Amino acid sequence: MKSQKLFWPFCVLLAFALVAAACGNDDDDGGEIADCEVNQTDGNLNIFNWAEYIDEEQLAEFSEEFDVSVTMDVYDSNEAMQSIVGAGNSGYDLIVPSDYMVSILIAGESVQPLNTDAIPNIANISSDFQNLIYDPTGAYSVPYQWGTTGIAVDTEVLGTDFPRSWGLIFDPALADQHSGSISLLNDPRETIGAALMYLGYSLNSTDEDELQEATDLVAESRDRLAAFDTDSADEFLTTGETVIAHGYSGDMFTQFQETEEPSRYVYFVPEEGGTRWIDTMTIPFDAGSPCTAHTFINWLLTPEQGAALSNWNSYSTPNAAAFDGLNEELQDFLSTPGVAPLELLEEIYDTGDFEVNFSDAFIEAKG
Amino acid sequence: MSSTVQPRGATKIALSVHSWLVYIFFFAPIFVLIVFSFSDGRNVGRWGGFTLEWYQGFFDHNQIQSAVWVSIRVALLSTVISVVLGTLAALALERFKFRGRQVFDALLYLPIIIPDVTMAVMMLLFFSEFFELLDAWFNLDWQKGFGSITISHIAFNISFVSVVVRARLAGMSEVLEEAALDLYATRWKTFRYVTFPQIMPGVAAGALLALTESLDDVVVTQFAAGPGATTLPVFVFGLIRRGVTPLVNATSVLMLTASVFLVALSLAFQQFSGRGGRSLLRGGREAVSTPNNQMKKEIYQ
Amino acid sequence: MTMVTVRPEEQEAAAAATPEYEKAASRAASRRGLLLALPAYAYLVLFFAVPLGIVMIYSFATRNRFGGTDLSGWNLEAYRKLGDPIVRDILFRSLWLAILTTLICLVVSYPFAYFMATRGPVVRNVMLIFVMIPFWTNFLVRNYAWRVLLGNDGLFTNISEAIGLGERELLFTTSAVMIGLVYGSLPFMVLPLYASIERIDLSLIEASRDLYASGFQTLRRILFPLSMPGVIAGSILVFVPSLGAYVTPEILGGAKTTLLGSYIVTQFLTARNWPVGASLSFVLMAVMLVATVVYFRTGGRNL
Known about the structure:
The complex is a heterotrimer.
Chain A: H1 2-5, H2 7-24, E1 45-50, H3 56-66, E2 70-75, H4 78-86, E3 94-95, H5 99-107, E4 111-112, E5 142-154, H6 155-158, H7 167-170, H8 172-175, E6 182-184, H9 188-198, H10 208-221, E7 225-228, H11 233-238, E8 244-248, H12 249-258, E9 265-268, E10 274-281, E11 283-284, H13 290-300, H14 303-313, H15 328-335, E12 345-346, H16 354-366
Parallel strand pairs in A: 1-2, 1-3, 6-7, 6-8, 10-12
Antiparallel strand pairs in A: 4-11, 5-8, 5-9, 5-10
Chain B: H1 9-36, H2 53-60, H3 62-95, H4 101-113, H5 116-138, H6 146-169, H7 175-182, H8 187-216, H9 219-224, H10 232-239, H11 246-272, H12 284-289, H13 293-300
Chain C: H1 8-17, H2 19-59, E1 62-63, E2 69-70, H3 77-81, H4 85-117, H5 121-132, H6 139-150, H7 155-162, H8 174-197, H9 203-210, H10 215-226, H11 228-244, H12 247-253, H13 260-269, H14 274-301
Antiparallel strand pairs in C: 1-2
């Protein structure tokens, strides 16, 4: 029947009309700096955040102090969050993207510039967090929490005298004896990046030959791995599933504290270099309550709230004024040599078109 | 049903042993899940001593409670609507020839075949553009949230229900329906007292399937959701990065207990209220071969 | 529910006598069918076909430097990328795993569903509900529970040690992925099988046995063909999700090989290459749709 053949073209046409009509109506209110006063509120606050990253009590405190209601939803990856916020009409006023994602959001005009006049407490941010590659002028983002990516080992198996190098994972001479008990992150940029650093290249290399070399290295190490795992790497280490784990500092610290003998495990950034990641606070382009969001950012940057945040989620704070308020275990961990050696650290940034090469390389390495 | 057609002797024993093994397989991880809900520690993989703190935690955790509540409401609403639409669709496809039937047939399979993420992305784009248009043309300020999640769930559940109901309808004899019609039953009564009881097990199975699909969905929900409308699976998925804690186990156990309780209650109620043709999961064969009096009366009046 | 209950012989007679009557009847039937289908039809057009059209449009677009999608410069680049040998390997590996999962589910579920369908009404209800109950817990924690069972101190390692197979750990192997997939899809096989076996008139089996057919012959010649619609529906409900699975392979398999599901997720959510993700989905859906229709048609003929 003729009408049946026309069904799918009809649907596509309808879809096209919808896309075109919606595009024509883009009344972007991004790009403009919100006109807000310090501590001004202009409605309720909807936060889109990583799970278990802020205490509900702390949100309730803000809600009470400024008489607005606060709702928080959670996401599990930067990319999922970016898709949702970037599509528009997400309804969120504050998001917490990681470093490289900030530059992507800025490029996609998905976030609005901050009104720094409304955030005087920005002065509390440590000088280590200025001139960041993902947001050079700091016009769009304020650091929320940060940490490093490195290696954690079980000293009961490795002893205390092991080389502090990515070679523990990539060098057959060091790694073969622990075959089947090693885990790498299931993340193209982190894992290919670790191999690049082991080879002496930059984490953000966009050289195809260097990438190929790193891909081959990961592919050769694959048979020694228990798993590529981002979410449970810390847990595998302390349950004995692995003895060498590629992972994030904060996760490792939290996990070590869970065991009866935290000193049995050691976390360090290898001497070839590691990643410094920074999660930030930014405001979506179509936020409904941008001023409340500014007020929240400013409030969270006070020394007391900054310390409370870190003490609850166990990650390091970029807030220099808050450091003294951190609990003792966290202060000890953060000042341990090798946990956060700024001179060895590099941030991951968006490489544009080359991101596809990283993702393809990782799939190739896995086979 | 005469007992002679039931499997006997060795066959019966083998079948029953097999069924027990299947149940052990089904419940082994559930057992682990329950045990770890009492574990004192953040890990779901290492036993840390007995505690009830996670159950306490559930009642203190507003976010997880609201997530459970949203999940349940979405699951029930989307199941009810998709069961009605899906069953009608199955009837139309199995029993009628109509214009556009083939296209409809294909369209009905797509939600099952489409990869999760693709459906998620497509619903995201659709809702954000659809709402933008509504805003521009009619000044309607609609937000993604409970409604858009439910709409997306219905969109895939219609297909799951109709596949199961069609499996039931396919090849089912139409003799009884013809007989009822020949005996001057109205079409509605024929459907109500002949067709419906016969397809009931299929409808019930479809409903259970839809309920499960809805309770398990993560990606589509995440992309169709808006502020304040997080379902349990989306919340739990978010927890992955910091490690899923026994809080989720405790929540699961509480939901499990509640559903077992509800099921037991409804079974008891069915037993209590007699063996009417309304028993939820009862097969059509008995319902038809032992029609109750009211049914006879209404059909033949 | 056939409203036009015209038997063939009647039909012929009617056609010969009054062709108008036959036409009118078939028109009426067509109208009723459409009317029944309409709510679901309209719903799916608005909330599925149109959104699908949007993704279709995206599949011909280009990824821009920042991982957004530029809706201009239409091309087939994304489809061309699917010819990559790596995509082919992933496809075959995933197909193999999905077929195996479907077969195992069928073999495990069939006797179970048959046993269930031959119980009394109360037992049957209870059995059915107890199939579903485990699946009302959270999907992720179920997978984590399997991790505990299959891990280095888990039940399976202890059993294999006890029966002298040595310390064999299943976690992070393909077997672990298989177990996880079978576990996750079993109810999707059991439900349609149950719905269609329950319908079969069991006196046919009795008749077959009375005529000295063996149990196996009865199964092969009577029971199985009659339950074919359930077998087909169940196979599709198991096969399709297994082909697209990505959470279970990552949790239980350690993400050491890439399967189709995670490849698509990677395209959308890691590489942020929506055109490739979309085009791959379309190719996959087209293949599956054709396979499904063919499977149904041949299955239907075997009835």
